[in-house]
């Protein structure tokens, strides 16, 4: 049996309307590469006909198609993790099913790997997202880079290529919540980036809400750095020192000027500010404790209902 050179992992969640268009572009693009490949679709508990369409595609191209069916919705990153654990290629490419990243650009990532790189990220050229997605993405990128020291120009683009060594390292991790591109970056010896195309979503709608993006970045920052906790500790020290100086100031003022009724609302404002900092710190601490709680339960990250693949 010849080894598979390329595995393309495609998570699918309620993509019924766009799957046929994906098939029409993905398979010809891979055929042109002239390498042995497999396409691993992971159905992440879709509630539409996505699973049935994937089954039909498997029956059409069983030699290069595999389908992993979840019995529920476990999220995009868990779907990709399942793809990592079931793929067999020496090089692995992740691709969204919405065709916003053209499958024809997979060759660019492989060509960059031929230069000796083991992990290839991508930068979307002329992004077609809504304006708020662009602003939020740039802000999160800057915040993430400052906190984690992980330099990814475009963390939201899922079109990425990984060597088998990096995939094996990722599979050895048992984290319940993680951010795969950042995790791969920490294992990579020679990461690189390439510019890829970006198109408007033709059908359907984005599965990431604003809350989902914020939740994802919380996982990124708390999963790869303790800097947020350190910042809060330093903030507590500074506020404590300022509070001490303020108490001394009020004591001296009382001795010189005497008791005053003025300044009551100023004290209220200061008290509310300190309460706000305290609540923020408790929430931040809760994020880390929540990650520990989820990890120590040792629940399965996902449950596979069935795997469609050609028997050897």
TrEMBL record:
GO terms for molecular function: undecaprenyl-phosphate 4-deoxy-4-formamido-L-arabinose transferase activity. SUPFAM superfamilies: Nucleotide-diphospho-sugar transferases. The chain crosses the membrane at residues 231-252, 264-285. Gene3D superfamilies: Spore Coat Polysaccharide Biosynthesis Protein SpsA, Chain A (3.90.550.10). GO terms for biological process: lipopolysaccharide biosynthetic process. Signal peptide: none annotated. InterPro entries: Glyco_trans_2-like, Glycosyltransferase_2, Nucleotide-diphossugar_trans. Keywords: Cell membrane, Glycosyltransferase, Lipopolysaccharide biosynthesis, Membrane, Transferase, Transmembrane, Transmembrane helix. It holds the Pfam family Glycos_transf_2. Residues 7-168 form the Glycosyltransferase 2-like domain. One of its GO terms (cellular component) is plasma membrane. This is Family 2 glycosyl transferase. It comes from Sulfuricella denitrificans (strain DSM 22764 / NBRC 105220 / skB26).
């Amino acid at each position: 049996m010849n080894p598979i050179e390329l595995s393309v992992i495609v998570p699918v969640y309620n993509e019924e309307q766009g799957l046929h268009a994906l098939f029409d572009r993905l398979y010809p693009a891979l055929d042109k590469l002239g390498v042995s490949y497999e396409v691993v679709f992971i159905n992440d508990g879709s509630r539409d006909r996505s699973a049935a369409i994937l089954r039909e595609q498997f029956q059409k191209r069983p030699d290069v198609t595999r389908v992993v069916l979840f019995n529920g919705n476990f999220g995009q990153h868990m779907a990709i993790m399942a793809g990592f654990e079931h793929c067999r290629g020496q090089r692995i490419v992740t691709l969204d099913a919405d065709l916003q990243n053209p499958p024809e650009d997979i060759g660019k990532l492989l060509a960059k790997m031929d230069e000796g790189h083991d992990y290839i990220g991508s930068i979307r050229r002329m992004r077609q997202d809504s304006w708020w997605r662009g602003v939020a993405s740039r802000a999160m990128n800057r915040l993430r880079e400052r906190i984690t020291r992980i330099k990814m120009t475009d963390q939201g683009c899922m079109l990425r290529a990984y060597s088998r060594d990096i995939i094996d390292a990722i599979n050895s991790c048992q984290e319940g919540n993680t951010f795969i591109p950042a995790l791969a970056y920490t294992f990579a010896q020679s990461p690189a980036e390439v510019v890829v195309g970006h198109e408007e979503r033709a059908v359907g709608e984005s599965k990431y809400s604003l809350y989902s993006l914020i939740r994802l970045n919380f996982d990124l920052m708390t999963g790869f750095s303790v800097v947020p906790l350190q910042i809060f500790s330093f903030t507590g020290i500074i506020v404590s020192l300022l509070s001490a100086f303020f108490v001394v100031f009020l004591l001296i003022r009382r001795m010189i000027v005497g008791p005053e009724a003025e300044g009551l609302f100023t004290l209220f404002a200061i008290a509310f500010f300190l309460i706000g900092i305290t609540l923020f710190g408790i929430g931040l601490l809760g994020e880390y404790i929540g990650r520990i709680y989820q990890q120590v339960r040792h629940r399965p990250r996902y449950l596979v209902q069935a795997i469609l693949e050609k028997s050897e």
